[in-house]
Amino acid sequence: MTTPVVSIAYHSGHGHTAVLAEAVRAGAVEAGAEVHLIKVDEITDEQWAALDASDAIVFGSPTYMGTASGAFHAFAEASSKRWFGQDWRDKLAAGFTNSGSKSGDKLHTLQFFQVLAGQHGMHWVNLGLHPGWNSSSASEHDLNRLGFFAGAAAQTNVDEGPEAVHKADIATAEHLGRRVTETARTFRRGNAAA
Where is the Flavodoxin-like domain (predicted)? Predict the structure, then answer.
C-alpha cells in the first residue's frame, strides 16, 4: 500500500495560521503521510501539480472579517482551472482556521472551505471530536476546546504573536492531520479493492 499524500494549502497573515499548518503537517507525518506545505499566496506551478497529485488537500486560513483571507480567496478562485476538468474530484478535503475571538465567525470560514471542496467534488473530512471545555470538569486544555465539528479552529489573542497559539489548538490541528491521513489510507484501500 503506497503512502497517502496530503497537501496543506494555507495562508497565514501574521504567522498564527502557519503554526496550525505545521501542526496539521506533524499529525499527518506521524500517521504516515507524505506531506506538502503550500503557501497559497506564493504558489508555484510545481505546487499546483502537487495538489493535483494529492490524496487529500487541507485548506487553512485566518478568519478575517468573517471569512477566509483575501489571499486564500484568490487561491480558491484560481483553483477554478481545476474545477473545469474536475481534477480534484473524489480527493479528500479538510480545513482549519484561527481568529482573535473565541467564535470570530470561524465557522463561516470552515463552511467556505466545505463549499469550495463541494464545488470540486471532494469529500469533506470533519474533525471527529466531541467538544472540549463545555462542562465544569473540563478545561481550556481539552482537545477541540472551542467546540467546532467541521474542522480545527483556534483562537489567539490579537495582541500576541504566533508563539501564543494555544497548545490545545495545536494538538487539535495535529489530530486533524492524523485523521485526514487515516481517512486517506482507508480510501486508498477501498479503491485498491474495487
Answer: 6-154
